[in-house]
């Protein structure tokens, strides 16, 4: 028994399946994962995890993992040594840069990679290639939320902690399927709702689990949330229920904002959203009846052509009612990837250096130029959505994509796949041979989180350490080593011996992270940015001041732009999102036995009304067609969707069934985030299954 004990290794790590950032001790024997054990001191989750965190690790030992580097020669991928592949990747970027200019290069950082890895990729783009064309997948999800918060309160992050949500008297969830997308966080809300008499309002197209539990469930017509939120604001002000004292002391722009609310009468709101006036009043009354409210939202809000405005409307409502700066209050855009927050925080963004320091700020540029011994670009870069049209315009000629399955997760995947084909040079660094890898010139095999050291930042701005649980699989390498290798091959010897040195550099250059070090993140210790002058992190934001020069919040006037909507030809609305068992496009969880068996593929949720109309039964194959593509999926008749609305998880077992073959390139002009949720389709029952 003692021998057996000795072979068991216990290592602290952080889950990579959502932004909650659950941490736990992983028990392993070699590459075998014996147990996932959350600890009392796990800051985000305590002793809980969900199915993905507990059982979702089978992919780590999947035979399908990339084992060695691949280089395309005469149209075919052949095995290469690391030296050869790194050299090939470096030369490829250099050659395209020399031929078309460095601005023809695009860098995409992984929102699943570590903070240190995002930092290095943006450093490569800026220091070596003098361009700001660097981004991460927050562009596909929460960039509009960040825009909304920057407009109103100043920090692009959750206002408080997951713990704080528990303390709130009222939780409002708008456009988020929390029970499935952020399960452990949802458990807290469920418990508080049950025990603490916390009230719960849910607004969503789909009657998801949280909606079932809610005290008030609102079902606005697709893409009309801004009307509902603004009508609530107007009604609250008209009743004199806004927090006058708070507004007087801490808020700018009230009058102009109130004026902008003029069109949002109950009558108008009700006719646009389809929600009865009485229910809007009931909701406003509930908001008025509590001392603290927080609002949680996700892609049901952000992935619209007015995603930034809708996010702004949420923050406006919170400012107006004085719901910022205290426990149990504030805005909670719930992050999807484990490190989508950190990838942005550490500078993988086209207009910000690490720590959200603007490239337009001369002092900031000077500081980084001194540290990196080079001149830095101040022209805003291209983001990872508009880079697609820039491939078509011949402006982007080469891309370095780290761990992003852009060929299946980008909007209008047919178009993206055609565009990738046109690139002169593509580096794909990933764990599996992804759909995107099919278009690559060189494929670099990366380790998974369990095989490396680093840090992740979860949805509540909490920086947490991950430790190496097991040796890298076959010949794989951590992304930070690969990026550093390419830099070296390009003549830049960064010479980081450990990710801690990368963090030290990032922390020294970004006030937000001053004082963050691996020493302070040891084990289950964590720090929430921004670091305060006293050296402590910030559990919640805006206690004394909002993040603007005068310290005041800003109410931001808005108007309503109708979404892309159904037509005679495409009469049905297809909503899409996550499911509990699978993660994103599914290239990890569909390779994990146990999970795959439980939910083998995607499905199309259809209302009883439509099922009757189209004579469809559960299990029938249905063809779903939009203006941009067509896929087939099995139908599932359910009460979760109603009327002419359909729902489909974005996770699919094969690349030819991804919902993004249907979605369009329509975008939110303020963040460039695709309007994935504005999707008119038609359906047809297939005769043969
Ligand atoms: Fe992982 Fe999120 Fe589940 Fe926690 S809630 S175990 S972070 S997927």
TrEMBL record:
User: Which terms in the GO cellular component ontology are assigned?
Assistant: membrane
Which UniProt keywords are present, listed alphabetically? 2Fe-2S, 4Fe-4S, Iron, Iron-sulfur, Metal-binding, Molybdenum, Oxidoreductase, Repeat
Coiled coil spans = none
Select a single GO molecular function from the record's annotations and give it.
metal ion binding
Cofactor(s) listed in the protein's UniProt record: Mo-bis(molybdopterin guanine dinucleotide); [2Fe-2S] cluster; [4Fe-4S] cluster
The 4Fe-4S Mo/W bis-MGD-type domain is annotated at 8-64
Q: Name one GO biological process term.
A: formate metabolic process
Task: Please state which protein family the record places this protein in.
Answer: In the C-terminal section; belongs to the prokaryotic molybdopterin-containing oxidoreductase family.
Protein name per the record? Formate dehydrogenase
């Amino acid at each position: 028994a003692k021998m057996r004990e000795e072979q068991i290794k216990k290592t602290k790590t952080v889950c990579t399946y959502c932004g909650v950032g659950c941490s736990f001790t992983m028990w392993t024997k070699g590459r075998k994962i014996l147990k996932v054990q959350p600890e009392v001191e796990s800051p985000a989750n305590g002793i809980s995890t969900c199915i993905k965190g507990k059982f979702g690790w089978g992919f780590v030992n999947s035979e399908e993992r990339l084992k060695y580097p691949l280089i395309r020669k005469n149209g075919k991928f052949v095995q290469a040594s690391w030296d050869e592949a790194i050299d090939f990747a470096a030369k490829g970027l250099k050659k395209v840069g020399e031929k078309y200019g460095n601005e023809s290069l695009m860098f995409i950082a992984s929102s699943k990679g570590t903070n240190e890895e995002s930092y290095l990729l943006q450093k490569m783009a800026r220091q070596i290639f003098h361009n700001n064309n660097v981004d991460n997948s927050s562009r596909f999800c929460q960039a509009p939320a960040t825009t909304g918060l920057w407009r109103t309160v100043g920090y692009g992050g959750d206002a408080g902690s997951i713990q704080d949500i528990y303390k709130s008297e009222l939780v409002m969830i708008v456009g988020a399927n929390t029970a499935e997308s952020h399960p452990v966080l949802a458990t807290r809300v469920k418990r508080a709702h049950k025990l603490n008499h916390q009230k719960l309002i849910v607004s969503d197209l789909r009657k998801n689990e949280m909606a079932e539990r809610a005290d008030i469930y609102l079902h606005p017509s697709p893409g009309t949330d801004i009307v509902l939120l603004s009508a609530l604001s107007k009604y609250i002000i008209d009743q004199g229920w806004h927090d006058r004292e708070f507004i007087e002391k801490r808020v700018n722009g009230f009058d102009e904002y109130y004026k902008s609310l003029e069109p949002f009468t109950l009558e108008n709101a009700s006719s646009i959203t389809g929600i009865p006036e009485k229910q809007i009043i009931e909701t406003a009354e509930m908001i008025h009846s509590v001392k603290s409210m927080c609002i949680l939202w996700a892609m049901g809000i952000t992935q619209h052509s007015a995603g930034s405005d809708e996010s702004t409307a949420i923050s406006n409502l919170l400012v107006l009612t004085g719901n910022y700066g205290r426990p149990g209050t504030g805005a909670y855009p719930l992050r999807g990837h484990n490190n989508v927050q950190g990838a942005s925080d550490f500078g993988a963004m086209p207009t910000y250096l690490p720590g959200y320091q603007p490239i337009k700020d001369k002092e900031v540029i000077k500081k980084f130029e001194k540290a990196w011994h080079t001149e830095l670009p101040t022209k805003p870069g291209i983001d990872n959505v508009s880079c697609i049209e820039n491939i078509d315009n011949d402006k982007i000629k080469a891309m370095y994509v780290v761990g992003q399955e852009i060929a299946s997760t980008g909007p209008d995947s047919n178009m993206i796949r055609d565009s990738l084909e046109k690139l002169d040079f593509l580096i794909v660094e990933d764990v599996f041979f992804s759909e995107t890898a099919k278009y690559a010139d060189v494929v670099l095999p990366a380790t998974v989180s369990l095989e490396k050291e680093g840090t992740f930042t979860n949805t509540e701005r909490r920086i947490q350490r991950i430790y190496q649980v097991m040796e890298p699989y076959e010949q794989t390498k951590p992304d930070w080593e690969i990026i550093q290798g390419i830099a070296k091959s390009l003549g830049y010897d960064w010479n980081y011996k450990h990710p801690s040195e990368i963090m030290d550099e990032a922390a020294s250059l970004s006030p937000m992270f001053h004082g963050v070090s691996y020493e302070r993140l040891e084990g289950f210790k964590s720090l929430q940015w921004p670091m305060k002058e006293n050296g402590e992190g910030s559990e919640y934001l805006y206690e004394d001041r909002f993040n603007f020069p005068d310290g005041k919040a800003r109410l931001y006037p808005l108007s309503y732009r109708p979404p892309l909507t159904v037509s005679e030809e495409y009469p049905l609305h297809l909503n899409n999102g996550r499911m509990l068992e699978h993660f994103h496009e599914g290239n990890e969880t569909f390779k994990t036995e146990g999970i795959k068996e439980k939910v083998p593929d995607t499905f199309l949720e259809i209302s009883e009304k439509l099922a009757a109309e189209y004579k469809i039964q559960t299990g029938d194959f249905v063809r779903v067609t939009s203006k941009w593509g067509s896929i087939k999926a099995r139908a599932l008749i359910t009460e979760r969707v109603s009327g002419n609305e359909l729902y489909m998880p974005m996770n699919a077992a094969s690349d030819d069934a991804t919902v993004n073959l249907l979605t369009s390139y329509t975008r939110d002009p303020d963040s460039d985030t695709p309007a994935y949720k504005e999707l008119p389709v038609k359906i047809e029952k297939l005769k043969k299954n």
